[in-house]
Amino acid sequence: MEKENIQQLLLQVGKKLVCERGVEALTARKLSEASGCSVGAIYNQFSNMDNFVVVLNYMTLDELLHQIQQIEMTDDAHADMNNIVRCFTRFVGENQNMWFMLYNFYLRAEKQEYSFLYLRNVAKIVNIVSDILQRILPDMERPERILSSQILWLTMFALSPFLTRENFQAASKINSTSVCQIVLNTFVAGLTILEKKN
Fold first, then answer.
1. By the 8 A CB rule, do 45 and 28 touch?
2. Which of 4, 20, 102, 117 is the most buried (most CB within 10 A)?
3. Residues 139, 177, 91, 109: what is their CA dihedral angle, to the nearest 10 degrees?
4. Which CATH topology does 1-47 take?
5. Domain residue extents for the chain
6. pTM for this prediction
7. Count of helix runs (H) and strand runs (E) in the chain
8. Four-way CATH pick for 50-197: 1.10.357, 3.10.110, 3.40.50, 1.20.120
């Protein structure tokens, strides 16, 4: 079997393990058993399990980006921004185990462990948000707009692991999408007021 085919097989099996059994199921031994590849073959392809997780995380973020890019933009910038937030919360909710793996890895990762592909996809998402923010606040300077978009992404990212847990929603009676939309709209309203003062 060619190298690319082995990698794809391992990634497919690894994703299935995480989706069905959680991050704890993703060990070299369990991946070897489920895929039929030896532990040596896994390390030969990815060097270590952290590198394997990095690739899976990139695939997860790439899928989120793809879904956001499929959103059809309208003449209503506020509605478009809320549609992105709905897309984000829906995606995280439907891919909880994969998202928690991504979240936990980058929460504990050192700066040098952030892959270029991951950072590139984050930048693409931030740019989409920035373009919509420009339509809402056309007089905002670009550096401030990019920074505001980055803060909004980081806020949604920080909220994501808590708001998708069923016990959180059941105990608080709060819908995760509603929470994220309230945070978004409050943030944008605050920026609007600040821009008017300036």
1. no
2. 102
3. 70
4. Arc Repressor Mutant, subunit A (1.10.10)
5. 1-47, 50-197
6. 0.88
7. 10, 0
8. 1.10.357
